[in-house]
Specification:
Elements (H helix, E strand, L loop, with lengths): L1 H5 L7 E5 L4 H12 L3 E6 L18 E5 L6 H15 L8 E4 L6 H6 L1 H22 L4 E4 L20
Parallel strand pairs: 1-2, 1-4, 2-3, 4-5
């Protein structure tokens, strides 16, 4: 992942970011745009906030799709690519997909357990199937959360905490 950022791998690449309106997703959108990528952001706004992306309304390198990744990916992603190619013919493929879509934090998991389960299982399956069939050379990056480490004994946790 480090080479994606430090070596400007993303310059002139088309990047798809699910969960684009979330805290981490919106910052990743900004960083990818800063590095010269064309970004397709996908979010259903269950927990993501439109205000996180408002500053990109007039950015010609950012395309926002309101969609749910638990639905069949082909239709909304093909539509997004068609719209993108209408203004950017050179953007004819997805080079990197960052899958960040998911309700985050224990309260969100508890309030939306089914949505959390579906986006991390069916949503991931749909995105992998789409990328494998349409853009097999693309990189797929799936984000996790700190919840995989269980309940920490120290709050807050530092970067070196195990």
């Amino acid at each position: 992942m480090e080479d994606l950022i430090t070596d400007h791998y993303l310059t002139n690449k088309t990047v798809l970011i699910t969960g684009a309106a979330g805290f981490i997703g919106s910052h990743l959108v900004d960083k990818c745009l800063e590095l010269g990528a064309i970004v397709i952001g996908v979010d259903n706004f269950i927990t993501g906030r439109q205000i996180n992306l408002k500053h990109l309304d007039d950015n010609p390198n950012f395309y926002l799709v309101e969609a749910d990744v638990t639905q069949t990916s082909a239709e909304y992603l093909e539509l997004a690519l068609d719209q993108l190619q209408a203004s950017r013919p050179e953007a004819n493929k997805i080079d990197v997909l960052f899958h960040l879509a998911s309700p985050a934090s224990p309260p969100a998991y508890q309030n939306q357990p089914i949505a959390t389960y579906l986006v991390n299982s069916l949503g991931t399956h749909n995105l992998l199937s789409f990328i494998q069939s349409q853009f097999p050379e693309a990189r797929f990056v799936f984000a996790s959360t700190s919840e995989v480490y269980g309940d920490p004994e120290v709050h807050p946790q530092s970067e070196s905490y195990w």
